[in-house]
Structure formats: structure tokens, C-alpha cells
Design brief:
By secondary structure, the chain is of the alpha/beta class. It is 36% helix and 19% strand.
Length: 401
């Protein structure tokens, strides 16, 4: 099945055309600076040269139109006609409480996405802009929403209910939602395949370590706990986000230092994490280079990151009821940062996870990186959210036909 996967941001669109029969990408591209001068259109048909153009792209519909033109271009295209596209899978960040799995994008489901905008004000409106643009140009094929939050809908109440007065959950849906679900789902599925295990009898902790970070306990293919919550700031410190923070600090910043709610939000989301501690940047690679040259705060930022990741791996391991099969590292830092993987794994021997320092020296490809006798297997697996979206889209279309 040929499925177009769309990941729409406020001023950008990522797209891939995937053939799910052999799980190959036929063509992909990135549209940047939509609605801004000198928009950038990057396109790469499989097995051929990537091209980059500077264009005036005024809105998402124009951008999607250009993408469809390139995919069907007589010389650079990968399909001859648009009717070869059998469905479109849309990445949607937040589905709220009512969306618990990937869904056909009916008017009712779109209403749920709109209602969840208050929880994801930067992402859901942008996702909807892309949806509206693609549906206008491809109105006669199925459109499916694949939600970052949906994979975590399997968490039990004890994991997602905050210990606030219960009415705040009942009346306002204040709860742990979790994010990066598509990535966690894909790498857990892939880890089970690599280890030749049935997913239904496979327990793992997946570590999505990028500029955003979340760790998830997955039991039998289902999320049972995760580090991100109502928003995307808690858990492990990230590129610019503070991670776990005593709520009294928020009160102190406002009442004693006179900061507004918006100023505090900017501080803990955009000025903290690796950037805030190091005083340098949110890029892990740059922080590591500075630490190697003796920059003490850069080293401290790395130590804090690894400390919290290690602590959460230990905590999530207790949710497996006695058997943890694997720890999986993924996303930009998790896939490529063997130095950070090494730092995080120091001390995990206590839960039976023994890293092989030589096998660990791998970047950007699938690998088992634990010692042969390790009770818990450690893996590095590049995430493939687009493929997961395509596979979920195919499954939903199959259910509805």
C-alpha cells in the first residue's frame, strides 16, 4: 500500500511516500519557512540525488501541492499519478483523553483534536493546518491520524493520575498523557524482532533521547508508565527544558523574583536543560566537545542528564513485575551518542544491564551493545516514526474497509 506520511509544523512540512508492502521510502522531502521569505523545498526520490530549491511558498496548501507535483513529476517523480497514493497518515501530537489509538480522521475525531489544542497549543493547530491542506488536494482517499499520546493510553490509573484533588482530573483532564508514543512503539516492536521475541511477551524500557526526552516502560507491547506528563517539560532534563522541578521553585520565581507566568514558562522550557546548566547550547555534541576541553559546567550538564536518565531507567524497571528483557536507546542522542549511552549505563549492572564499551561505539544504526552474558539486552535502534505512521495508517484503513 502506498501511503503518504505528513508531519506538519507551523512553518514546515515533512513528507514521505512509503510503500508498506516492502517498507521502503519511495520519496521524501522537507518544506521549510512556509509563509516566510525564501522558503526552502528539499526533495529526495529514492536512489536519486537530493535537490534543494528556494521558492516563495505562501501557505501549507501550496507546499503540499508542490510536494505532490514532485512525487508525480515525469523526471523526478516516484509515481505516475496521484491516484497511486492510497491513504494519508498524519502525525498528530495530542489526542486528549478520548483518542486512545490511531483513528480515521472523521469530523468527530477532528473535533477531539481541536479540543486538545489547549494541551498542545504549538503543535495541534499546525497539525490541523497540514491536514486541511492535504484533504483539499486529496479528498477522495482515507486520512488517518496517528497520535503521539495514543500509545500511552494503555497506562493504568496509578501511573497517569496526579495526586491532586480528583476533581481536577474529572473536570479538567489534568493527568499524565505522555509523548513520543510513535517512536516508543516503533523501537519496542523492532527490539522484539531483533531479539526474536513475541511482542506480547516482551518487556523493555525505551529511551527516546533527543532535544526532547522521554523514557517509557513497555510491557507486552503496551505502555505502562512514561516520564513526560501533562506537558512536555518533566522527567529527564532536555536540550532547553528543565525536566523534573520542585513546584515551590515556580512559586518562588513568581512571588520572590517577580517573574510572570509567561516568563517562567519561557525559562523552564527554552532556557534550561543542557543550555541552561552549561551556559552554552542545547546541542549535546557541542556540550560534549566543550566538556572534553575542560569546561566544568558542560561536564556538569552531561552528568545531570545521565544521572536523571539512569534514575528513571531504574524506576521504570520496577514496573516490569520481575522481568526486564531490554533497554533501547533511540532518537538523535540515543541513536548516535555512544558517549552519553556509556555514561547513562554506568551503574545499571545492578538491574542486570551490562554495556559492552566496544560494541557501544556505533552511531546511527541498529546494534546490540550489551555484553553477551548480560541479563538485560541493551540496544541502539534508530527510530522510524514515519514507517510506524504508515503501518498504523494501513491497519486503520484495513479495519474500515
Amino acid at each position: 500500500m502506498k501511503i503518504l506520511v505528513i508531519n506538519s509544523g507551523s512553518s514546515s512540512i515533512k513528507f514521505q511516500l512509503i510503500d508498506t508492502n516492502d517498507r521502503k521510502v519511495l520519496g521524501k522531502g522537507l518544506i521549510e519557512r512556509i509563509g516566510i521569505a525564501d522558503s526552502v523545498f528539499t526533495y529526495e526520490p529514492a536512489g536519486r540525488q537530493k535537490t534543494k530549491e528556494i521558492l516563495d511558498i505562501h501557505d501549507h496548501r501550496q507546499g503540499i501541492g508542490l510536494a505532490l507535483e514532485r512525487l508525480t513529476d515525469p523526471e523526478k517523480g516516484v509515481i505516475s499519478k496521484l491516484n497511486e497514493i492510497e491513504a494519508v497518515g498524519h502525525r498528530i501530537v495530542h489526542g486528549g483523553e478520548k483518542i486512545t489509538k490511531s483513528e480515521a480522521l472523521t469530523p468527530e475525531v477532528i473535533t477531539f483534536i481541536e479540543q486538545a489544542t489547549k494541551q498542545a497549543p504549538l503543535h495541534n493547530p499546525a497539525n490541523l493546518m497540514g491536514l486541511e491542506a492535504v484533504r483539499a488536494l486529496l479528498p477522495d482517499i482515507p486520512h488517518v491520524g496517528v497520535f503521539d499520546t495514543a500509545f500511552h493510553a494503555s497506562m493504568p490509573e496509578k501511573a497517569f493520575i496526579y495526586a491532586l484533588p480528583y476533581r481536577f482530573y474529572e473536570e479538567h483532564s489534568i493527568r499524565r498523557f505522555g509523548f513520543h508514543g510513535t517512536s516508543h512503539q516503533y523501537v519496542s516492536m523492532r527490539a522484539a524482532q531483533i531479539m526474536e521475541r513475541d511482542l506480547e511477551n516482551f518487556n523493555c524500557i525505551t529511551c527516546h533521547l533527543g532535544n526532547g526526552v522521554s523514557l517509557t516502560a513497555i510491557k507486552g507491547g503496551r505502555s505502562v508508565d512514561t516520564t513526560l506528563g501533562f506537558g512536555t517539560m518533566c522527567g529527564v532534563p532536555m536540550g532547553t527544558r528543565a525536566g523534573d522541578l520542585d513546584s515551590d521553585i515556580i512559586i518562588y520565581l513568581q512571588e520572590e523574583l517577580g517573574m510572570s507566568a509567561r516568563e517562567v514558562h519561557n525559562l523552564i522550557y527554552k532556557e534550561s536543560g543542557l543550555k541552561g546548566v552549561s551556559g552554552l547550547t542545547n546541542d549535546m555534541r557541542d556540550v560534549e566537545q566543550a566538556a572534553e576541553k575542560g569546561h566544568k559546567r558542560a561536564q556538569l550538564a552531561l552528568d545531570i542528564f545521565a544521572h536523571h536518565a539512569r534514575k528513571y531507567i531504574g524506576a521504570l524497571a520496577t514496573q516490569m513485575e520481575g522481568r526486564l528483557d531490554a533497554i533501547v536507546f533511540t532518537a538523535g542522542v540515543g541513536e548516535n551518542g555512544w558517549e552519553m549511552r556509556s555514561l547513562i549505563c554506568r551503574g545499571l549492572e545492578i538491574i542486570g544491564a551490562e554495556l559492552d564499551e566496544e560494541l557501544n561505539k556505533v552511531r546511527g544504526k541498529e546494534a546490540v551493545i550489551s555484553k553477551p552474558g548480560s541479563k538485560v539486552t541493551i540496544l541502539a535502534i534508530p527510530t522510524n516514526e514515519e514507517l510506524m505512521i504508515a503501518l498504523d495508517t494501513e491497519a486503520v484503513v484495513g479495519e474500515t474497509n
